[in-house]
Structures are given as C-alpha cells and as structure tokens.
C-alpha cells in the first residue's frame, strides 16, 4: 500500500516554513491523539502517520532527501525509515519545545508532573494593610504618638472565624470530594486548579454564619496607637504586627504598615537631616555687621553677621537641624541671608546715601572694580 505524501498528510505546501510545519503538526496531533480518541484504530493510525511525516520534514537533511527521492529515500539502503534507524520520534517533543520542556515548565504542570498545586485545607494568611499618616516637621523632629482609626476585615466573633453557624459543622466539599482541587480536560491535556466551591479547603459549610455569611470575617473599625520616632522622613514605614486583615481557616493576621508623610513647613526646607531657610537682612546690617535672632525648630538662635556680608551668603548653625533617625546626633541649620534694598527713602535718608555714594566714588564707578576689569574687553 503506497504511502500518502507527507506534505499532504500535514496539510501544508512544499514551501512551508519550520514554524508553520510545527503548527500544522500540533493541530493534527491534537486531533488524532489516542487519548482523545480511545479505541479508534483509524485515529491511531492517522496519528502515527502525521508523526512519521513530521519526523521527516522537521529534519533538514531528511526533508531534502524526501523532496528529491520521495519515500524511496527511506527504504532499505536509504537514510533509514521514519521512526526507525533514523531515531525514534517522540510525538510530545514539539509540545516540550513550545512550552519550555524540562522539569518545572508549564508542560509538566499540564501533564501532572513537576510542581504541586495549592494544598487542600491550607490556612490563608490575612492581607497586609497600608495607612498613610501625615505629621508636621516639628513632630518629625521631636517624635510623637498617634492614634489612628481604620477599617479592616476582622475574625467573626460569632463563629470564631469558621464561617459556620454555631452548632453546625462543616462537611466534605461535594465538588472536589475533599481534595481542594478539581481537574479539567481540554482535549488530551489535563490540568488541576483550586476548587471554586471551597477555595481549596476541601470542606463546605453546612449552614453559613448569619453574622459573616460564611466568610469567617467581618469589616470593623480598629484603632491602634503608633509611636513615631524622632527623625522620620517622608516615606518612612512603621509596622504594627498582626493589625492587618484577619486570616482565613486559622491563618495568621496580616500586618499594618504606616507610611509617614511630613508636611511642608512654612519656613524650613529639609535636606536629609539638614534644614534650610532664607532670612532677609537690612543692607546697613550687611555693611556694618552685627547679630540677629534666627528661627529654629526648638525656638530661636543667634547668628553673627560679619561686616560686608553679601546677599546670598549662607551660614551654618551646627546641631540645629533634624535628629538622625538611628543615632543621637543632629543635622545643621543652613541660613541664607538676602540683603534687602530699601524701595522708599525719605529726603534726609536719600541725601545721606548720596553723600555716602560720593565719598565712595560710586557715581563715577557704580559697579565693582573687579567686575570692570573682567568686562573691560567687552566695552571696546
């Protein structure tokens, strides 16, 4: 009995690419696989036929020989029969290639090998919760204690978290038979998943609790006191263990994470543990020098202004910044002075300034002499 043309068997043209060939074979293999057609000898024969065709055409040398000599290339004295001397063909090989064959891939999960699924009846830990807390810069510097109120899923007191009405019991899940998993078939591929009825516990509630409706948890308002250490900054996280959502089936409660947000201050900017502020001073103070009071988070401090201080000069007050979160030292306070120029002058004030300017030679040379030397070439 003559064999069918391999290309016709797979339903492809002679110019088919390797990727298209693989897709065509997969389609035919799924269609005629014995597991999908139990007891069907015709389907079994067809499966062997498409497997033999693919085994030849996927190999470049075998395909070239077949294109030149046809089936005679694999008769006695030829290159070896498909599935014979040329090496046995595994019809699942292309599935392993497509799904990342080897241990632990999706192929292994589909066919029941590799990693196990979720265990039946396992306790489920409660979810963690996040609470965003805003504090002032002063509170961040000194440390403070806050009481926060939030809503969470807590264990039902009536049924003690079981979900069952008191006096009733749980029964074996009728859907999965207590295994916590169900098996689905798609063609000859089988895979397991968590039972949708019992969520993997293997048990069903005979009569749901009237308080939580079988959930085992109810929403309630909770309060917790949080001690905020000195030196925290925006983004700092504090954890309150066990104050998150209650677990299910005896699982532990999650944690509550408090995320700190420090408000912007009207005077100070924060740079790590240092504070920064700008202070206006009179031009007479900048010229003659003196001392001024400056604000600090702890009250006020004294700053000495040397004679001839220029606008934009920055002074450092050590230890007047923010405390280190993990240490006893503190950052510094950086004070930048801005020299104010009077906008309105009385006639006697104006006269005195004019006399001062004349004494300094300002009318003839209104800008700094050092600048004139640098800019002289531009004025030629």
Please provide a brief summary of the model.
This protein is an alpha+beta fold and 380 residues long.
Describe the structure.
The protein is an alpha+beta fold and 380 residues long. The protein is built from 10 helices and 15 strands. It folds into 5 domains: 6-110, DnaJ domain (Helix Hairpins, Orthogonal Bundle), CATH 1.10.287.110; 120-161 and 213-263, Urease metallochaperone UreE, N-terminal domain (HSP40/DNAj peptide-binding domain, Sandwich), CATH 2.60.260; 170-205, no CATH class; 269-340, HSP40/DNAj peptide-binding domain, CATH 2.60.260.20; 342-380, no CATH class. The strands form 6 sheets. The chain has a 4-stranded mixed β-sheet. Helix 2 packs antiparallel against helix 3. The protein is elongated, with a radius of gyration of 42 Å.
- Name the average pLDDT: 78
Q: Specify the biggest β-sheet.
A: 4 strands, mixed
Count of the separate structural domains = 5
Q: Unreliable segments (pLDDT under 50, ≥5 consecutive)?
A: 76-121
Tally of separate helices: 10
Distance between the termini: 107 Å
**Helix-strand string:** HHHHHHEHEEEEEEEEEEHEEEEHH
CATH topology of the largest domain: Helix Hairpins
Order of neighbouring strands in the sheet with most strands? 10-11-15-14
- Tell me the total number of β-strands: 15
List keywords for this structure.
15 strands, three-stranded mixed β-sheet, 380 residues, single chain, HSP40/DNAj peptide-binding domain, alpha+beta
Tell me the layout of helices and strands:
Layout: H1 6-10, H2 18-32, H3 41-57, H4 60-69, H5 93-99, H6 106-110, E1 129-135, H7 137-142, E2 144-155, E3 170-172, E4 181-186, E5 189-194, E6 203-205, E7 217-228, E8 237-240, E9 256-262, E10 269-271, E11 274-282, H8 283-288, E12 290-296, E13 299-305, E14 314-317, E15 333-340, H9 347-360, H10 369-375
Parallel strand pairs: 1-9, 11-15
Antiparallel strand pairs: 2-7, 3-6, 4-5, 8-9, 10-11, 12-13, 14-15
Helix pairs in contact: 2-3
């Amino acid at each position: 009995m003559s064999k069918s043309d391999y290309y016709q068997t797979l339903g492809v043209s002679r110019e088919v690419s390797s990727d298209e060939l693989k897709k065509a074979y997969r389609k035919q293999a799924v269609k005629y696989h014995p597991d999908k057609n139990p007891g069907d000898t015709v389907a079994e024969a067809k499966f062997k036929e498409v497997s033999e065709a693919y085994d030849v055409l996927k190999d470049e040398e075998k395909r070239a020989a077949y294109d030149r000599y046809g089936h005679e290339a694999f008769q006695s004295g030829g290159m070896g029969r498909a599935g014979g001397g040329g090496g046995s063909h595994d019809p699942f090989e292309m599935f392993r290639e497509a799904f990342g064959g080897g241990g632990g891939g999706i192929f292994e999960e589909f066919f029941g090998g590799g990693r196990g699924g979720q265990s039946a009846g396992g306790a489920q830990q409660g979810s963690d919760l996040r609470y965003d807390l805003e504090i002032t810069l002063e509170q961040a510097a000194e440390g403070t204690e806050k009481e926060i109120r939030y809503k969470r899923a807590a264990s039902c007191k009536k049924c003690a978290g079981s979900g069952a009405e008191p006096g009733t019991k749980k029964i074996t899940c009728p859907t999965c038979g207590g295994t916590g998993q169900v098996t689905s078939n798609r063609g000859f591929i089988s895979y397991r998943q968590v039972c949708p009825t019992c969520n993997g516990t293997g048990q069903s509630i005979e009569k749901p609790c009237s308080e939580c409706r079988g959930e085992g948890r109810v929403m309630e308002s909770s309060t917790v006191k949080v001690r905020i250490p000195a030196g925290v900054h925006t983004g700092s996280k504090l954890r309150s263990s066990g104050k998150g959502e209650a677990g299910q089936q005896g699982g532990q409660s999650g944690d509550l994470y408090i995320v700190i947000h420090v408000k912007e201050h009207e005077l100070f900017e924060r740079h790590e543990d240092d504070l920064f502020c700008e202070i206006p001073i009179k031009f007479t103070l900048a010229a003659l020098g003196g001392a001024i009071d400056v604000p600090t988070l702890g009250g006020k401090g004294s700053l000495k202004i040397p004679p001839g201080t220029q606008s934009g000069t920055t002074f450092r007050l050590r230890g007047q910044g923010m405390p280190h979160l993990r240490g006893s030292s503190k950052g510094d306070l950086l004070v930048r002075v801005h020299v104010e120029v009077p906008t309105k002058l009385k006639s006697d004030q104006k006269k005195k300034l004019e006399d001062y300017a004349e004494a300094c030679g300002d009318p003839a040379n209104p800008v700094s002499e050092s600048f004139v030397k640098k800019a002289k070439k531009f004025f030629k």
